[in-house]
Every structure is written in C-alpha cells, then in structure tokens.
Amino acid sequence: PLPTAPSPEPGGTPPADPGPRPPLIARPGTVHRVTGERESLEVPLDLTGSLGLVGPRRRLLGLARAVVARLVADHPPAGLEVVVVAPGRAAEWAWAGWLPHTAPGPGRACRRLVAFDREQALARLRESAGREPGGPRTLLVLDGDPGSAEARAAAAELVARGRARGVHVLCLAEAPAATPTSPLERGLASARAAVPALVGCGTTAVLVGEVATTVRLVRADGTVGPAATADAVSAAWAERFARALAPLGGDPQDAEGAAAGGPLPSSVRLLDLLGLPRVTPGVLRERWAGPRAGLPVPLGVGTGGPVVIDPTVLPGPVVVEGPPGSGRSEALCAFAVGLAAVRGPRELSLLLVEAGGGDGLAACAELPQTAHRLRANDPVRMRAFARALRAELKRREDLLGAGGFAEDRPDGGRSGFTLPAPVGEEEGVPLPAMLAPGSGPMPRLVVVVDDSESLWAPAAGDPGRPAAGSMVRILEAVATSGARLGIHLIRAGGPAPAPGALVRLTGSPPGRGELLRPGPVPVPLQVARVTGRIPRTSTLRPTVVPLDWARMGDPPTRRPVRELGNGPTDAALLASAAARAGRTEHAVSSV
C-alpha cells in the first residue's frame, strides 16, 4: 500500500541527503503468496536503470501515478528531482507540478520540470542529457512519443545510458492488456513500435488480464516474473498528495524563485547583486568593516546565480573581450563599482585608464577610491603615469620583499609603512598620485584599462602612440608581478591573457557572454549594469498571472523594467554614498 500523504509544516525545508544514497526502488505492485503473505514487487532502478510501463491508457496512468508517488515519498527533493515529459497531456500530469521534486535547479530553463509540448520536451531531454554526475538523481517520466526525431534519440540515449549520470527513465507506452487472445509478447512489441525508447528499458512492467489490474515484470533477457496486483491511485489522490508535499519546496507559481536556475536575464542591476536596495554611507561603512579576504565582486549572473570574480586569487589579469557595443566598458565599470562596495578608500585605490580616447570609465571617476583617471591621448601624461606606477611597484617591492602582500597578518602585514612621497615630474608634468585620498600606506591597487588594444597596437595618427610602449611595458609588469605586491590588472581588449579570467562578450543583448577561468567549463554570464537608472517603482510591483500548467515548462518571463529617465545612475548613487562614507572613515582613522 502507498504511504499516507504527509502534512509538513509550511515553509519547511527538505533534509539533506547525507552519506550513501538510499536505493532507488520502484514498486509497481504487490505479490500475494499462497501462504497469505504479501510482498512488494520491487524494481531496483540503480541496477536496471530504467523501467517501462505498458498497458491500457486509464490503467497505465493509475499505475504510473502510484510508482511516482512511492518514489517521491521515499526520497526528499534534495535527493531526487522529477522531470515529466508528456507532450499534449498537460491535464493528466498537471498534478505533478505541485511536487517539490519538480522545482528547477541551476541550468534548468523553466518554471517547473515539466514538458507538455514538443519544444518543452526537447529542452527537458537536453537538460537531462547534459547534467553532470552527482547532485540529486533524476526520475524522468516519459509518457509516450516525445515528438521530434532529436527528442526520440535523446530519450533513447537516456533510457539506455542515463543511469551513469543519475538519470532514470520511467517510460510509458499504451498497449492493450495481455490476455489469452492477445499474448503479452504481441502487446509489448506494439508498445515498443509506438515508443522506441521502451526497447532500452532494463525492466518493463506489463499490465495483463481482462481488466488490466495485474502486472508482470519482463526482464531485458525476456524472462517474465510472477503475477502481482498492480498498484494504482486516482488523479484526485495524486493531486492531494502532491499538494501536501508542496510546502517542502518553492511555490510552483513563483516564477522569480525558479528564474534563478533558469535562463539568463537580459539585464541585471549590480546593486541588486550586491544586496543594496538602499545605498547609504552607513551600509557601505559596515561592508568595508567586514572580512578582508581578497576582493570578491559579483560581476553578473549565470544560470546558477551570481557569478563572483576575485582578482586577488587569479594567476593572471582579468580580461574583457567583445565587439563594439557588447558592453565591455560597462563590464569594467561594474568591476570598479563592485570593488568600491567591497573596500573603502583606505584599503583600495583605483587607477582608471581610457586608452581609446573615449570616456567609458567616466561613471567611475567620482568614486572616492579612484586615485587617478588617465585619458591616454597625451604622450607626456601617459609617460608620467607609467613612471609613477613603476615607482609604486618598486616601492612595494622594497617594502614587502620576498613575503609579498598579505592580508592575514595585522594591518595586512603592512604595519609601520608610511605614505609614499611625491616622486617628481615628467617633462614639467607632475607625476599623478597612485593612491586615493585618505588611503592607507599600502592598499590594494587595481588598474582598470579600457580599450587596451589601442596601447598594444595604436593606430597611425593616434596622439598617444609615442608613449604607448611605456604604457604597455608597465601594464605587462603589473600583470606578471603585481599580484604578489597587491596590484591587479583588469582590462578590456588587448592580447590574449595569461591564465586568469576571460570575460568574452557577444553583445546580444549587451553584457551577454561567458566567463572562462582556470577550469574546463565556461560559465554563461549576463554582466551587471551600473550606468542604468533607478527603475520605476511600478515595474517592481508583483504581477498576478493565471496559472497555466501547460506553459510551466517554458522559460520564465520577467516583467520589463522601465527606468526613470532623469534619475541618478546606480554608479552615481554608490559614488555619492561612498564619498560620504569615505570622509567619515578618514575622520575616524585620523583621530
């Protein structure tokens, strides 16, 4: 018999799946022994891989509901996810959408793990085929033909080899019940012709008898097991059961909750990623006073949530690539503003270099952490900048020695250091400051360079061409030896980077791309925006939409966000609050 539907407390969370995984056992029926004892008919999916169910439609659905209900009752959502692929059969499987096991995880482009048309079916099958081993196991319910030839091939592959990736298929195929006038073998052959994926199932449960209430197991080698009474539950029972389990997971009508594991948004605010609904000096001072390990910055969002980059742990620079209009300058601004939210001006200084003659980094110029902004169109000022930065590298090398920059010692291992003295001028131009006003003697220093290809390969007639070599040499010195001294490089364009992090943008939409860092798998990415303006409050209000189970397998949609045309940008908001917070921090540290 099936377990009684539980009554969990609202808001409860499923327990973790500790230690070895419990066996995944399907129970399609009960064997009645001549001694009067009853014994469950068990199919160990860990061994057989997949299970086929064959019989008349009405009886087949009752059996399938019972098998799924037993499995989700035995395994928490943390250990088993359920995917339903049933094109054209939304009414018969809508109840499964209430199961917390159908909530989408990272990389799932849907609001619920269901598929009720051909496009949804192909998407769910591709997602299941591409999943990495580990994580929760997947029970994929395949009801009939998935539609296209590609979907059929993917389904057959999952039935035959999905077990190695933790995917177990429950494959349904309609056929007349086996009777003396309609042998079991004939019905099984008919079902396999209609649903080719059924051929690869390690075991198939076939409904037999005049009223199809008896089930027999057919093994892969053709042997037939003993007759058993088929388990079955009604659609109403299944929905009550699923609704009782629903509080163990997220709300199936909550598109935003599921969207974190779905497709990338077309736009995202950096302040939202930073958790700063209100940007005030007090909030920033609290953040600056927090743990000081590295410079972790959420650059954007991926299919699994925020994508964080910490330039202090990378063996090389961070490089942003992309065609014009792809959002390279915006990505650099997001880096700079994100860094300013992590560290105050006493512990972080920024150097902004605009090599292409543009003003893509203008939004960051007002940050209190910005020590200097160089427009690389004046050879004298470019050489002065290169000379000042080289002097800062040498100063740190002399002071830090072989030990290098360290944050795990008191004052970062920099106690007793003094602020650098002015180092002179270049052809009558004073050398620019390398540390922000109010800086400590040895802060982290981040050099942000836009359009760096204009330095490595300056065009003929470029006014900065005579000093491009000096700039390239000092930037290469920062890339190779700066990290050890607490100096880091983030640039857009230029030559391919040494091992570090590469953000490759496509520009459709702006900010869309992928992150490549040491490791085999690129991370899809939508870079956060900082030059956008405050969204209108009307676009942030909840939206009520009808619950249409047939469309729950579609990618989640978001309400378009409209911005205030005359409001301040996010970068300006943070720069203003950071400037006030920096003045207070400097005043306190001076007492």
From TrEMBL:
One of its GO terms (molecular function) is ATP binding. It comes from the Bacteria. Residues 1-23 are annotated as: Disordered. This is FtsK domain-containing protein. SUPFAM superfamilies: P-loop containing nucleoside triphosphate hydrolases. Residues 304-524 form the FtsK domain. PANTHER family: SPORULATION PROTEIN RELATED, TYPE VII SECRETION SYSTEM PROTEIN ESSC. ATP binds at G322, P323, P324, G325, S326, G327, R328, S329. Pfam families: FtsK_SpoIIIE. Signal peptide: none annotated. Keywords: ATP-binding, Nucleotide-binding.
